[in-house]
């Protein structure tokens, strides 16, 4: 041991953060000790309080420390639209990028039978009860366009139809501002096949 | 506000870490909430304890929660050798890479008059008292090979000579395993000029 125990412990603990290896942990520990002890102590308090108190919204399964998240609790949102996403980060990016004013349901994952993630783990029983209530008219399925995300979307669309809710899916195609030369083949083939008439 | 207050606060606090922007902070917060709440709570405790209790070693200025760091407190180290480095990270890498068994002095910076960092801020008065005690025979100056690091090295060498201590500097040259084609010109010119006889 050529180093303080507490410092070693601090560096080790920082490695629980994603993308932080030994070298970054070391740099972070020294940075906090040398330049920002107050910020580090605030981070300690935020971690302590956040990780102990943040749970899931009873309606949409998003993270919140309340019984219901601010979106579900809001009376200004349109309850006839329900957007289903895989993760809270997906919900956040849709909220930031679009003018969507409906509600959300967060799966906290995707169907993946090999990993033991089935409909129950994604809270689809709760989603079904919600659809059965009859308020939702359209379910916007915004799972990722990956193999597992597509399988989940297919399953969700069937569920929606059972309750006479209209399922819809985000459009696929060439990203806006992208150059055709750098778009992957699958996307380009899809965009070509689903070309739209110009007005 | 479309997001839990505690979650927003957690994401903001994570940005005190170096190299962590809004997107990484978001990813870290979700990762801890979804997969590693225990690790996050351990991190909170390590930050709290570390940032409050870790101070500086009375002899070498390295970080430690004791009066003296483990290296200064060790009776197995050679007190006649003193290696002067800019930061604790430099001390750590020398300790890991070399078989050095002497002691260290950590400047916690480099001479930089424009930023108001002079000899006093680097603890050079304390270093001078240490050299005056007469135990140190050789001072290995391992500041960075930058303009400021070289100026600091020059100043330190003068200080050493005042107390009849032999100053030495890390060798410069072509890195081992490097290819000449990719070595910068300054290093190559220096290595060429300081070529050594082959045995």
Describe, in plain words, how this protein is organized in 3D:
Two copies of one chain form a homodimer. With 199 residues, chain A is of the alpha/beta class. Chain A folds into two domains: 5-53, RecR Domain 1 (Helicase, Ruva Protein, domain 3); 69-169, Dna Topoisomerase Vi A Subunit, Chain: A, domain 2. In chain A, 45% of the residues lie in helices and 13% in strands. Chain A contains eight helices and six strands, in the order αααββαβαβαβαβα. In chain A, strands 4-3-5-6 form a four-stranded parallel β-sheet. In chain A, strands 1-2 form a two-stranded antiparallel ribbon. In chain A, α1 crosses α2 and α2 crosses α3. Chain A is globular.
Topology, please?
Two copies of one chain form a homodimer.
Chain A: H1 5-14, H2 22-35, H3 37-53, E1 55-56, E2 63-64, H4 70-73, E3 78-85, H5 88-97, E4 102-106, H6 124-132, E5 138-141, H7 147-162, E6 166-169, H8 185-193
GO biological process, one term (chains A, B): DNA recombination
Family (chains A, B): Belongs to the RecR family.
GO molecular function (chains A, B): DNA binding; zinc ion binding
Spell out the key features of this protein:
homodimer, 199 residues, alpha/beta, Helicase, Ruva Protein, domain 3, Dna Topoisomerase Vi A Subunit, Chain: A, domain 2, 45% helix, 13% strand, globular, zinc-finger (chains A, B), metal-binding (chains A, B), Rcmb_RecR (chains A, B)
């Amino acid at each position: 041991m050529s180093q303080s125990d507490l410092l070693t412990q601090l560096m080790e603990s920082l490695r629980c953060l994603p993308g932080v290896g030994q070298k970054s942990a070391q740099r972070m520990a020294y940075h906090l000790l040398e330049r920002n002890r107050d910020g580090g102590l605030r981070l300690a308090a935020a971690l302590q309080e956040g990780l102990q108190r943040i749970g899931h919204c009873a309606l949409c399964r998003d993270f919140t420390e309340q019984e219901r998240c601010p979106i579900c609790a809001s009376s200004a949102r349109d309850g006839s639209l329900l957007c289903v996403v895989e993760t809270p980060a997906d919900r956040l990016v849709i909220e930031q990028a679009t003018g969507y004013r409906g509600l959300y349901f967060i799966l906290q994952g995707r169907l993946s039978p090999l990993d033991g993630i089935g409909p129950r783990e994604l809270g689809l029983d709760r989603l079904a009860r919600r659809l059965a209530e009859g308020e939702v008219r359209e379910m916007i399925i915004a799972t990722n366009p990956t193999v597992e995300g597509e399988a989940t979307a297919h399953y969700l669309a069937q569920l929606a139809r059972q309750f006479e809710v209209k399922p819809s899916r985000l459009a696929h195609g060439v990203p806006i501002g992208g150059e055709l030369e750098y778009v992957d083949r699958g996307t380009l083939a899809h965009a070509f096949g689903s070309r739209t008439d110009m007005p």
